[in-house]
């Protein structure tokens, strides 16, 4: 029996993390651009309390 080993490299997938980061960043900027400032403050405030981080 003969075993054949194939050497493969992932050269074509190096751009996927960068594309994901760009899409995620644009999505966050778009969402936060359409939300009122008080809603963003309240969301950050609630996350701080939920994680046990004091904010007052």
Automatic annotation (TrEMBL):
Name of the molecule in the record: CbtB domain-containing protein
Superkingdom to which the source organism belongs: Bacteria
Residue ranges of the TM segments: 12-31
Keywords for the protein's UniProt record, in alphabetical order: Membrane, Transmembrane, Transmembrane helix
């Amino acid at each position: 029996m003969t075993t054949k080993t194939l050497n493969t490299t992932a050269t074509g997938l190096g751009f996927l993390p960068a594309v994901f980061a760009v899409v995620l960043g644009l999505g966050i900027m778009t969402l936060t651009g359409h939300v009122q400032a008080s809603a963003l403050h309240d969301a950050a405030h609630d996350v701080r309390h939920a994680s046990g981080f004091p904010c007052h």
